[in-house]
């Protein structure tokens, strides 16, 4: 076994593919499954193992469950966020996480028309209420980051259970919105979107700015889509698709992310098949699925061939459904 996949605890070398992460625990740069919470799983020599932290004692037990089928436990972490345009803070309704509800009220999304021209701004909450989406007046700018390691494996995340929209769905590395602030409104070279992508990679999966420089993102194009999360919430976005390739240290924020997983193209196809057959409760985010079905594999091939520039189309906004 390669030494990079091992971890020392109490002087013993143990498998590092699976990893437990508490709020104070550091992340890992490995290609195995990393669950955020009390337990995680990994595969070693044909067996699936689970590790838990109980009174600071690491215990291992066999848990023959594949990565995508095991449901992690969750921790609620209160974290400070600062924003340029604070709003009146409403108390979180029953069943909603306080931190996520705070972000829904305070974050100001960038409203655009179908040509991606800026019209103004509105709260993240208003932009995701399905009744407002149906009026056609809260179309807003978004981005989706696809981060690959130097083995050309794609980092996926499972959104946390506390997310207001699309909780526990599997999606690309990072999905969010540029905010209505000066640094994220810069149109030249899509710098505003790239600044936002750098910010949210830190917020969601703990990737430091130095490991995700803005000039390391390649903006491939834009899609326009609309999709409900449930009867109350949904998305209506002009979504910028960004690719980046580098090895990074991942430290997921449990308020945002339930789990992460590096996948090959074949492993992603397997995951998509599980989602289609509803195996193990696997669900993919609608924007991710649209990008997978329309573009991802051919863009991935170009990335592997060092020809990613051939995929760039900054003129077209692809309307997908």
UniProtKB/TrEMBL annotation:
Q: Which NCBIfam families match?
A: IPP_isom_1
Q: Name one GO cellular component term.
A: cytoplasm
Which family would the database say this protein is a member of?
Belongs to the IPP isomerase type 1 family.
- What name does UniProt use for this protein? isopentenyl-diphosphate Delta-isomerase
Q: Which CDD domains match?
A: NUDIX_IPP_Isomerase
Q: Output the GO biological process annotations, alphabetical, semicolon-separated.
A: chlorophyll biosynthetic process; dimethylallyl diphosphate biosynthetic process; isopentenyl diphosphate biosynthetic process
Q: What is its EC number?
A: 5.3.3.2
Q: Describe which pathway this protein belongs to, using the record's wording.
A: Isoprenoid biosynthesis; dimethylallyl diphosphate biosynthesis; dimethylallyl diphosphate from isopentenyl diphosphate: step 1/1; Porphyrin-containing compound metabolism; chlorophyll biosynthesis
Any one GO molecular function term: isopentenyl-diphosphate delta-isomerase activity
What are the protein's UniProt keywords? Chlorophyll biosynthesis, Isomerase, Isoprene biosynthesis
Domain Nudix hydrolase: start-end pairs: 138-290
Q: What does this protein do?
A: Catalyzes the 1,3-allylic rearrangement of the homoallylic substrate isopentenyl (IPP) to its highly electrophilic allylic isomer, dimethylallyl diphosphate (DMAPP).
């Amino acid at each position: 076994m390669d030494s990079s996949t091992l971890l020392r605890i109490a002087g013993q070398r143990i498998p590092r593919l699976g990893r437990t992460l508490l709020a104070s625990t550091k992340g890992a740069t490995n290609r195995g499954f990393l669950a955020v919470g009390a337990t995680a799983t990994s595969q070693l020599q044909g067996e699936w193992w689970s590790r838990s932290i109980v009174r600071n004692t690491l215990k291992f037990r066999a848990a023959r469950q594949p990565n995508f089928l095991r449901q992690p436990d969750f921790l609620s972490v209160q974290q400070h966020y600062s924003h340029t345009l604070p709003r009146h803070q409403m108390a979180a309704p029953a069943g909603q996480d306080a931190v996520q509800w705070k972000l829904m009220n305070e974050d100001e999304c960038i409203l655009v028309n179908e040509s991606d021209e800026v019209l103004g701004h509105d709260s993240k909450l208003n932009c995701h209420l399905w009744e407002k989406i149906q009026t056609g007046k809260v179309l807003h700018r978004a981005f989706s980051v696809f981060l690959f390691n130097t083995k050309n494996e794609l980092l996926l995340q499972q959104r946390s259970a506390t997310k207001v929209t699309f909780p526990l769905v599997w999606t690309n590395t990072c999905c969010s919105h540029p905010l209505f602030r000066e640094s994220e409104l810069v149109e030249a070279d899509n710098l505003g979107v790239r600044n936002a992508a750098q910010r949210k990679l830190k917020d969601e999966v703990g990737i430091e700015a130095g490991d995700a420089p803005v000039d390391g993102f390649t903006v491939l194009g834009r899609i326009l889509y609309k999709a409900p999360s449930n009867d109350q919430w949904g998305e209506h976005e002009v979504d910028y698709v960004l690719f980046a390739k580098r090895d990074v240290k991942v430290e997921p924020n449990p308020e945002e992310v339930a789990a992460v997983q590096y996948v090959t193209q074949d492993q992603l196809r397997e995951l998509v098949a599980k989602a289609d057959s509803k195996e193990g409760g696997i669900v993919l985010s609608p924007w991710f699925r649209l990008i997978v079905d329309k573009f991802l594999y051919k863009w991935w091939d170009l990335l592997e061939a060092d020809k990613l520039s051939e995929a760039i189309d900054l003129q077209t906004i692809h309307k997908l459904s």
